[in-house]
Amino acid sequence: MIGEPDDFARAVEAALFASDQPLSLGQLRQHVGEGGDLPAALAGLAADYAGRGVNLVERGGRWHFQTAADLAHILRQERDEPRRLSRAAMETLAIIAYHEPVSRAEIEAIRGVQVAKGTLDVLMEAGWVQPAGRREAPGRPLIYATTPDFLSHFGLSSRRDLPGIDDLRAAGLLDPIDLAMEEALAGTGGQYVVENDDEEA
Q1: Stated pTM of the model
Q2: What is the set of domains in the chain, with CATH numbers?
Q3: Element (H, E) at 184
Q4: DSSP assignment letter at 85
Q5: Are the C-beta atoms of residues 127 and 1 closer than 8 Å to each other?
Q6: If 0-12 CB within 10 Å is exposed, 13-18 middle and 19+ buried, where does residue 32 land?
Q7: Residue range 91-133, pLDDT digits in tens
Q8: How far is the C-alpha of 144 from the C-alpha of 130, rounded, in Å?
């Protein structure tokens, strides 16, 4: 955006600044009305803030201001985490993110072990997972999907930005046991059951 922002862009900026949560285009329209080109105003503001201490970013169709990535360490504070995600919760979150919408039975089929009810509760309390309706199948099981807060927390614009298996391997985020099993199964085409603790941390 060249020069000073117009009144519509200023209204968009004010609405985003005052909001305590990311806003969708529809929510922004409720604040600023129909009197301007909203996508153009957002693009201009994002460009204006690109090199500053805070940036205007879009995550999962919602816009918000956040601290510039290279300055996040300045604001980081030591705090006691009331609850850490267990391995079971992390695996469940990953399955939902990569396969959503997905039912509990489908999660269990992929993990190879039963999913404790508390696992999904923890993810929903964190705001990263939500019910997404019911599967049109016998029993109409509840299905789950990730939320915009999940995308925002992990710095993803959309699920297309989720890392692939090669990215995870290169980053050293795959468990050595999982890697060994993956290599073994690549030659046999077999399947295995993951037998890890499902107890919540």
Answers
A1: 0.49
A2: 7-75 (1.10.10.10), 87-188 (1.10.10.10)
A3: helix 176-188
A4: P
A5: no
A6: buried
A7: 888 888 888 889 988 988 888 888 887 888 888 988 889 999 8
A8: 6
